[in-house]
Amino acid sequence: MNFDFTDEQKMIQESAKDFAENEIAPTAVERDKNAEFPTEIVKKLGELGFMGMMVSPDYGGAGMDTISYVLAMIEISKIDASVGVIMSVNNSLVCWGLESYGSDYIKKKYLIPLAQGEMLGAFALSEPEAGSDATKQKTIADKDGDFYVVNGIKNWISNGLSADYHLVMATTDKEKGHKGISTLLIEKGTEGFGHGVKEDKLGIRSSDTCSLTFENCKVPVENLVWEEGKGFNFAMNTLNGGRIGIASQAIGIAEASLHAAIKYSRERKAFGQTISNFQGIQFMISDMAVKIDAAKMLTLKAAAFKDAGKPFFKEAAMAKLYSSKIAVECALDAIQIHGGYGYVREYLVERYLRDAKITEIYEGTSEIQKIVIARSLLKD
User: Fold this and answer.
1) What CATH number does the domain located at 122-229 have?
2) Which residues are catalytic?
3) Which of 63, 89, 217, 246 has the largest count of CB atoms under 10 Å?
4) Residue partners of 113: CB distance under 8 A and separation at least 6
5) What is the CATH code of the structural domain delimited by 233-378?
């Protein structure tokens, strides 16, 4: 077992770190306050190849492995988890899904601009009555000649306002239950396609989240992804890879929390010495470091399994479950170490906590991850 990264992986990690510190950090605080989408930053990420990292160069991507993607996601999310989730959705949920299951037509028309960062994607599965139970899709797509006519509502859609292309799960055959769900690629601006107001969120405020509405929205049949009835499988397979991205995002938040705690403990004095000399503080910092390393090992294992072509459902679920848990714990510990200063916006650790919580919820709640893990262990 080799724990060393390749020179290329190290280069990608360093490139992401440099970009995050120099291009993302200067505006992160203001964008969080104003809930401002980082349009120019996303464009630059695309130019550097970070929006289609794992896509083949044949379709405009960087052709990198999943481990490189994990390393880049950690560095970006360490500075701004909002940018991290935008990058994760486009890479893990949209580009990967289209490259794996899209037709040649879809790959050439849609995947290439997505992988090159010229366009942005969104993944629309959740509905008002279909969250953790994704089998209960109420959005309907009725076939009418050369088109599907889509009616319904999606909610909690990351990149919902800013995305150019949306992967939408809709029921094409009510009689077949979850085997009657299909995936359609719907372009922004299509007649009958609208969206709700931007959600005013606790965290990851610089990314946009909104509901989508479809009212007799006509989608060409060639925009069907994979086959009719494969939409639920598409969503589950795609989310499996997405969980590696969210685990990486969570690790980035946890690392930022640790670094902030170490820095502050070395500067803050109490009882005639820096608080870094107090055993209680040292215990908290050491616990944070151990948790982060454990989360990294789980996430890199899932990434390595994915790159090797091995099943990685359980590994991805474990990585997301644990990484999201420790992101919240590390952010809380960082606030505790900062004392009252940790509770105000002047210091960044309060944002880390606000950003961390969503990693336990989206792309499958922690409870859903436990179900995935248990079923994998208990199956015959």
Assistant:
1) 2.40.110.10
2) 363
3) 246
4) 60, 119, 164
5) 1.20.140.10
